[in-house]
Automatic annotation (TrEMBL):
Residues 31-285 form the EAL domain. This is cyclic-guanylate-specific phosphodiesterase.
Length: 289
């Protein structure tokens, strides 16, 4: 990422090893501004969470929701996570932001469980820095305790690239996390380089097939082969499989036929505000009553 490389260069620039053209300088300053704005956002409550339903694909029943962060910038409006998570990660601000997400997600889902009596789970994305943090286990325990959410209702999403470190320490960290009672999902599976033999050694519960493979179903035969193979292998390893980015009925049908367990995507629902999620459950209740 060119912007991040620049950001690093700017930091080193204080030692006088780098010089900038005017244009590069402006971009570096923008990144430093973004860092300050992220600090401000955390302090002044500019973040919110949306929740995207993850459904049991055969029945269409909602099983869990993925918490997705949103930033309402006072002047720039909505800023997408793709435009600030990387910078937050680079500066280390992702650690307090990630902790905020974890806490907020657990509190809101606990509240929803109490309002609806429905045993809803929540999946929260972890960043690389959070995953590496030796305090993560303690943070998870504290968040569960203060929210009152029982651990079986919390899923943590990690990506393949985070697991590419020394395998022994990765396994140890995954085991520490799992000892708290939460489940672990590998997000964006297939977008990185982990081998299946590597996967076999990791104590994880769910595989989330990357959106890239789902997108061109049913036109791309290769993607269909890969998706059905990943589902079959995952099941052999006793993992559940969820497909992300499911946008149409052809994709849904393909996934049902190939025995995918869960699905998430605009075909089922876009990410919802807490209020909309609550309404959604009230409607289900009225239908089944
Ligand atoms: P992700 O974890 O893979 O999340 C799925 C992304 O796909 C979300 O984008 C979601 O809105 C989008 N999406 C859902 N259904 C569909 C669909 O049918 N079609 C298409 N094209 N897209 C769909 P979003 O919310 O913009 O988040 C982007 C990424 O930012 C996430 O990818 C995740 O890596 C990161 N992110 C979001 N929230 C957090 C967070 O709280 N902490 C961390 N560390 N990262 C986060
Ligand atoms: Mg995710
Ligand atoms: Mg994903
Ligand atoms: Mg993604």
């Amino acid at each position: 990422n060119a912007d991040l490389a620049l950001y690093k260069a700017k930091e080193k620039g204080r030692d006088g090893y780098y010089f900038f053209t005017e244009e590069l300088n402006i971009r570096a300053i923008k990144l430093l501004t973004l860092e300050q704005e992220l600090r401000h956002a955390l302090q002044f409550d500019e973040f919110t969470l949306l929740f995207q339903p993850q459904v049991h694909i055969k029945s269409g029943e909602i099983n869990s929701v993925e918490a997705l962060i949103r930033w309402h910038h006072p002047t720039r409006g909505r800023v997408s996570p793709d435009d600030f998570i990387a910078v937050a990660e680079e500066t280390g601000l992702i650690v307090p932001i990630g902790e905020w997400v974890l806490k907020k997600a657990c509190i809101e889902i606990k509240m929803l469980q109490q309002l609806t009596q429905f045993p809803l789970k929540v999946a929260v994305n972890l960043s690389a820095r959070q995953f590496k943090d030796p305090k993560l286990e303690t943070v998870i325990k504290e968040v569960l305790e203060c929210s009152g959410l029982e651990p079986q209702f919390l899923e943590l999403e990690v990506t393949e690239s985070m697991l590419m470190d020394d395998i022994q320490s990765v396994i140890a960290q995954l085991n520490r996390i799992k000892a708290t009672g939460v489940t672990i999902t590998i997000d964006d599976f297939g977008s990185g380089y982990s081998s299946l033999s590597y996967l076999k050694r990791l104590p994880v519960d769910i595989l989330k097939v990357d959106r890239e493979f789902v997108r061109d179903i049913p036109d791309d035969l290769n993607d269909m082969e890969i998706t059905s193979a990943v589902i079959a292998v995952a099941h052999k390893l006793n993992l559940k499989v969820i497909a992300e980015g499911v946008e149409n009925i052809d994709q849904r049908d393909f996934l049902v036929i190939n025995k995918c367990d869960y699905a998430q995507g605009y075909y089922f629902s876009k990410p919802l505000t807490f209020e909309d999620l609550y309404d959604y459950f009230c409607k289900i209740e009225r239908i089944s009553a």
